[in-house]
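Hello,

Our lab assistant flagged a job as stuck in the queue for most of the afternoon. It eventually completed. Since we weren't sure the result was trustworthy after the delay, we are filing this so someone can double-check. Below is the sequence as submitted and the structure that was eventually returned. Let us know if re-running is recommended.
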Amino acid sequence: MGVLKEHRQKGLTLLPNFLTTLSLFCGFYGMVSAIKGDFIISAWAIIGAACFDGLDGRVARLTRTTSKFGVEYDSLSDLVAFGVAPGILAYLWGLQGFGRLGWLAAFLYVATTALRLARFNAISHSGTGQSRYFLGLPCPSAAGIVSTAVLFSHHLGIEGQFSHVTFLTLVYILSFLMISNVRYYSFKDVKWFEAHPFSSIVTLILFLMVVATEPRVTLFILGILYGISGPMAIIYRSIFATKAKVKEDEEHYNI
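-- returned structure --
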């Protein structure tokens, strides 16, 4: 019985690492596809890597098989799948026409991804991180925006100089957001789904239907909305903080 339990535990331990390996494979395949000029396949491969990356951590927590090795392996995989792969895709698809400015943008994206992951690991190891929020734009989200931008442009047939200038700007903005102090909601402690299981299923089905209508458009829009949610939250909080300060001053001075 003890041997069977030990084999079962080993199998559960391997599962998160297997999902991480699948994420790494998708990232590598995304690089190969981009080099071959198959940019659409490359973009979908990176999105696939993000899906597997979202599963490995959750599976590890559900099966209680989290380990330091798994955390480090996941970070190395993330650097390839969400740093190098989208950096190569971005450069070969829309940045190489800008010469030095283009490859510097691609390098900056890879470098900020590495810095983002290093800071995330440092915060996680220190135990000072907040599970509700990410500090800086998560690199899978940034990679998803890069990939869906390629898919979105191809779907609308707007590939060209104008779209590539916009894309260059987008890459620089994403690089900045990843290493910024802007907070992004992590969706790790959403209690509504646990409290309303039936409504959650219906909501999930409706969400999948919306995404499936035209994923190249809906995924890009969702990515952009999440990308701007952090800065918009700062603006929202500053406005209400200013209003609260004005109201406090008015009450203090009886204005």
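-- support follow-up --
The delay was a queue issue, not a problem with the job. The result is valid. The domain at 2-248 is CATH 1.20.120.1760 (Four Helix Bundle (Hemerythrin (Met), subunit A)). The mean pLDDT is 85.
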